[in-house]
């Protein structure tokens, strides 16, 4: 059983519904996967309607807001993390060494290097997202390698000492410019 994960507020502006279309693309290629959502929001009913319309409702699990323990227990069990628009959850997936498919927007490219630490696909292109998911599912060795490289990159970028030094430097620059 293949499980994918998206951790997001269920809001249209977060593009939380886009992975549904990717799952439909995969389903049309006879690639059956489950998509687990952790998160809640005003778009939940609309997402249920979209899943029903696409005929993938049995593959979609809207689990609501979940705590960190639940998420940390699930991350090692998933085949890929989907990030149309992610924040901290992208870092959590990266630190867990999970292969990621993300839209190329906001800060995602700071963590994801396409075809090395994951897949960056054109923003709002759910077909490209589906194709990248398929690549992960068809090449387990590549998926494992990407997950390991992503974890190493996240450990480097999110190093608490480095983050503290950068914040102190930023505040000093602001203070000195006053």
Describe the structure.
It contains 8 helices and 6 strands, in the order βαβαβαβαβαβααα. The protein has helices at about 20-30, 45-55, 70-75, 90-95, 110, 125-140, 140-155, 160-175; strands at about 5, 35-40, 60, 80-85, 100-105, 120. Strand 5 (about 100-105), helix 5 (about 110) and strand 6 form a beta-alpha-beta unit. Helix 1 crosses helix 6 (about 125-140). The model has no long low-confidence stretch (mean pLDDT about 95).
What order do the helices and strands come in, and which of them pair?
Blueprint: E1 3-7, H1 18-28, E2 34-38, H2 44-54, E3 60-62, H3 68-74, E4 80-83, H4 88-95, E5 100-103, H5 108-111, E6 119-121, H6 126-138, H7 140-157, H8 160-177
Parallel strand pairs: 1-2, 1-4, 2-3, 4-5, 5-6
Widest beta sheet: strand line-up: 3-2-1-4-5-6
The fraction of residues in strands falls at: 5-15%
Question: Which stretches of 5+ consecutive residues score pLDDT under 50?
Answer: none
Mean pLDDT: 95
Quaternary:
single chain
Give the ordered list of helices and strands.
Answer: EHEHEHEHEHEHHH
If helices are DSSP runs of H or I spanning 4 or more residues, what is the number of helices? 8
- How many beta strands in the DSSP annotation? 6
The Rg value, from CA coordinates, equals 17 Å
Q: Tell me roughly what share of residues is in helical segments.
A: 40-55%
Q: What is the CA-CA span between the terminal residues?
A: 58 Å
Shape: globular
Q: Largest sheet, if any?
A: 6 strands, parallel
Q: Structural class of the helices, strands and pairings?
A: alpha/beta
